[in-house]
From TrEMBL, chain A:
This is Segregation and condensation protein A. Residues 1-22 are annotated as: Disordered. The keyword DNA damage does not apply. The lineage of its organism: Bacteria, Bacillati, Actinomycetota, Actinomycetes, Micrococcales. It holds the Pfam family SMC_ScpA. It comes from the Bacteria. Residues 1-19 have a biased composition (Low complexity).
Automatic annotation (TrEMBL), chains B, C:
The keyword Repressor does not apply. This is Segregation and condensation protein B. InterPro entries: ScpB_csome_segregation, WH-like_DNA-bd_sf, WH_DNA-bd_sf. Keywords: Cell cycle, Cell division, Chromosome partition, Cytoplasm. It comes from Glutamicibacter nicotianae. The keyword Disulfide bond does not apply. NCBIfam families: SMC-Scp complex subunit ScpB.
Length: 300, 196, 196
C-alpha cells in the first residue's frame, strides 16, 4: 500500500530557531529539536542532570520567556493568527506549574511531612515524575516504531489490480446513486472543514478568566501590604490550580522586569519573594507581552 | 556498463532482483526498463526472464504463479490451473454495490480530476489506496496519461463512469454550490483546486 | 472434510494453490480463509505457508520475494535486500518519513487505544491536532466507532498500521512498562492526572 502523502507535516510545536545558542552562565539551551514542554523539562532535568533545587528558577524562566518571544516573533513574521503562540503559552503554563511543583516538592524536608499540604505536594511530585517518566517511555516506544517503520519501508507488498479474467467475474455494479447524490457527496468532501475543537490541556483547569496582569496586580498589593512572603502564602487564597499557575507566571514576568526578588535562606528553605521598591513595574503592561494570548487564559 | 553490476553482488543476483521488482509491478515491465534499473544489458535481462519463466513452469513443481510476457513486457500472473480457487477467493464477499468510502472517493475524483491519490487522501482525511484500487478494477476510473507533481499517478473518470451515471459528458455533472448553503465562497469551491 | 481435497489432485498441490491465490491478493489473507478456499484444515495451510516462506528465504537461492505473516494474514512482499532496485521502480509514499512528533503520537495511540486527542495531548504535553490528521490521512490510525467521555472522538490504530510495521498483532508491540521503573499502574496514573 502506498501511503501517498504530499508532504510531511512538520512537528506541531514550532521550535524557534536556535534560541539561546550562546552559552550564558553555564546555561545553554538549543531549542531546535524540542517538541513541547516535556521535552524541555526532560532536557533540563535529566539530560543535564540538574537538580531542580539547584536550578535558579529565574534562569529557567528567562529561557522560557525567550522561547515564547521567539515564537511570537516567528508568528508575527509569518503573519499567522497567533493560535500557535496561544498553544505554546498554554504549554508554557504546563511547564511552569510542573517546574514549580517539582521545585516546591524538592524543597520539602524528606520524611518530615508536617501537615496535609506537604503530603499533597509530595504526592504531586511523584505524579509529576511519573508523568515525565511516562513521556519518556512513549519517546522510547516511538523510537521502536520509527525503526520498524524505516526497516519495513525496504519491503513492498504486492498489491496489484485484479487480473482481467477475474475482474470480469465480479458482479455487475448496481448503481444506486445519481449525479445529484454524487454532487452532494463531492460538495461535502470538498467543503472547507472546521478545525476540530481543541480539547487540549485545559480540561483540568477550573474557574473564570484569569489574567497575568490581574494576578500581578494582586501579588503587588499583597507584597506591599505584608512585605516578604513565601510562594505558598502568595497562593494560599487561590481558588483553583489555574490561578496558582497564572500567579506563578506573573511572578516570573515580574522577576524578569526586576519588580521582585527571590531569596532562599537555606537549601531546603522556602522561596521568599519581596517587592523591589524602586521598580517601575506596570502590571497592565504585561498584557502587551502576551498579546498572542490576550494575556488571558480562558476556561472553556 | 561494467561487467559486474551492483545486482551481481547480492545473493540471488539478477534473477532475484527481477523477481523483487516484478513482484510489486502492477503493469507489465519491459526488459529494456528492467535493464536500466539493474544496469545490465537488455539481452542479459531477457535471458534471465526466460529462465525464471521456465523455472516457474516446472523445474521442481509448477508454481502457483507464472511469469508471462505480454505485449508491453513481463508480469507475474496466477497460474490458470488454479483459476477455480482464485475465483472463489475473488468472489468471496463481493457485492454489487460500491461502499460509501468508494462512492465518496469517486465523487472527489469526478470533480477534481485529474487528481492524485495523495490529494484525495488529503481531501477525505483517510487513506484511499484500497478504494482507488477497487474503482480501477471496476473500470470507473483510470490512470491519467500524464503524471502529476513529483511523479504522482493521476486518476480520471472513464466513459463507463459517465454511462453508469447517465451523463453525456463531464460538463453535465451538477454544480456543487447548491449542495452547500452556508458556505461563503462557493465559487472557489466549484473551481479552485483543493489546497493540501 | 475428505482426506484428498480437490487441490491435491492438481500438480503442485496445496503449495502452488496458495501461491496462486496470494498472487492476486491485495491484502493479507488469513490461513483460516485459505483453508476454506482449499477445503483443507487450517493447520495444514499454516504448515504449507511456513514451508513456502522458508523455501523463498533460501533453499536454492533467496528469492526476490518473500512470504510474510503480517496483521491478520499472509502476503507476498519484495525482499528488503533488493530495496534499492525496487524503489527505483516503485515511486510511492512508502518511503515518506514520519516526523518525530508523528511517531510519538502514534506510539501513544498504539499503547493507549482507543484514546482521545485530549489524552494524547496530556501525555505528550503538546497539541496533537495536526499530527493526528497526518496519521489519519496516512491510514495508520482511524476513528474508533464509539465516542469517549464527553463526546470526544477516540482513535485507534489500523490493520495497515500493523502491515506497515510488519507486526502480526498489537501484542507484538514491546511492553511499555520496562521503560517505566517504579510506575506500577499507568492506567490509574492516566486517570488520576488528566480527567478528560
Amino acid at each position: 500500500m502506498s501511503a501517498t502523502l504530499s508532504e510531511e507535516t512538520a512537528t506541531e510545536s514550532t521550535t524557534p530557531a536556535e534560541a539561546g545558542q550562546e552559552s550564558a552562565g553555564g546555561f545553554r539551551l538549543a531549542l531546535q529539536n524540542f517538541n513541547g514542554p516535556f521535552d524541555v523539562l526532560l532536557h533540563l532535568i535529566t539530560k543535564r542532570e540538574l537538580d531542580i533545587t539547584e536550578v535558579a528558577l529565574a534562569e529557567v524562566t528567562d529561557e522560557f520567556i525567550a522561547y515564547l518571544r521567539e515564537l511570537q516573533a516567528a508568528s508575527a513574521e509569518s503573519g499567522s493568527d497567533g493560535m500557535k503562540v496561544l498553544d505554546e503559552t498554554t504549554e508554557f503554563l504546563v511547564v511552569a506549574s510542573t517546574l514549580l511543583d517539582l521545585k516546591a516538592a524538592r524543597l520539602l524536608p524528606r520524611g518530615e511531612m508536617a501537615d496535609e499540604e506537604d503530603f499533597e505536594l509530595l504526592e504531586a511530585r511523584d505524579l509529576l515524575f511519573a508523568r515525565l517518566l511516562q513521556y519518556k517511555a512513549f519517546k522510547q516506544a516511538a523510537e521502536f516504531l520509527g525503526e520498524r517503520y524505516t526497516a519495513e519501508g525496504a519491503r513492498h507488498p504486492r498489491e496489484v489490480s485484479l487480473e482481467p479474467q477475474f475482474a470480469a467475474l465480479l458482479p455487475e455494479l448496481v448503481f444506486t446513486i445519481g449525479p445529484d447524490a454524487l454532487a452532494a457527496m463531492a460538495a461535502k468532501a470538498l467543503a472547507p472543514k472546521p478545525e476540530p475543537a481543541t480539547e487540549v490541556g485545559i480540561g483540568h483547569l477550573h474557574g473564570a478568566n484569569v489574567t497575568i496582569a490581574e494576578e500581578a496586580e494582586s501579588i503587588t498589593a499583597l507584597l506591599e501590604a505584608r512585605g516578604t512572603l513565601a510562594f505558598t502564602e502568595l497562593v494560599a487564597d487561590a481558588p483553583a490550580q489555574l490561578v496558582v499557575v497564572v500567579r506563578f507566571l506573573a511572578l516570573l514576568e515580574m522577576f524578569r522586569q526586576k519588580a521582585i526578588s527571590f531569596a532562599q535562606q537555606d537549601p531546603l528553605g522556602p522561596l521568599l519573594i519581596s517587592l523591589i521598591q524602586e521598580s517601575s513595574f506596570d502590571a497592565q503592561a504585561v498584557q502587551d507581552d502576551y498579546e498572542g494570548s490576550g494575556g488571558e487564559v480562558n476556561h472553556e | 556498463m561494467s561487467e559486474i553490476a551492483p545486482i551481481d553482488r547480492l545473493p540471488g543476483g539478477l534473477e532475484s532482483g527481477l523477481e523483487a521488482v516484478l513482484m510489486v509491478a502492477d503493469i507489465p515491465v519491459s526488459s529494456a526498463r528492467l535493464a536500466e534499473i539493474f544496469e545490465v544489458p537488455t539481452a542479459r535481462v531477457a535471458a534471465a526472464l526466460e529462465n525464471l519463466a521456465s523455472e516457474y513452469d516446472g523445474k521442481d513443481r509448477p508454481r502457483g504463479f507464472e511469469l508471462r510476457r505480454v505485449a508491453s513486457g513481463w508480469r507475474f500472473y496466477s497460474r490458470a490451473d488454479y483459476a477455480d480457487f482464485v475465483s472463489s477467493y475473488v468472489l468471496d464477499g463481493q457485492t454489487a454495490r460500491l461502499s460509501q468510502a468508494a462512492l465518496e472517493t469517486l465523487a472527489v475524483i469526478a470533480y477534481r480530476q485529474p487528481v492524485s491519490r495523495g490529494r484525495i487522501s488529503a481531501i477525505r482525511g483517510v487513506n484511499v489506496d484500497s478504494v482507488v484500487r477497487t474503482l480501477l478494477t471496476r473500470g470507473l476510473i483510470t490512470e491519467y496519461p500524464e503524471v502529476g507533481d513529483g511523479g504522482a499517478t493521476l486518476y480520471q473518470t472513464t466513459e463507463y463512469f459517465l454511462e453508469r451515471l447517465g451523463l453525456g459528458s463531464l460538463d453535465e455533472l451538477p454544480a456543487l454550490s447548491p449542495y452547500l448553503p452556508g458556505v461563503a465562497d462557493l465559487e472557489s469551491l466549484d473551481s479552485a483546486t483543493y489546497d493540501d
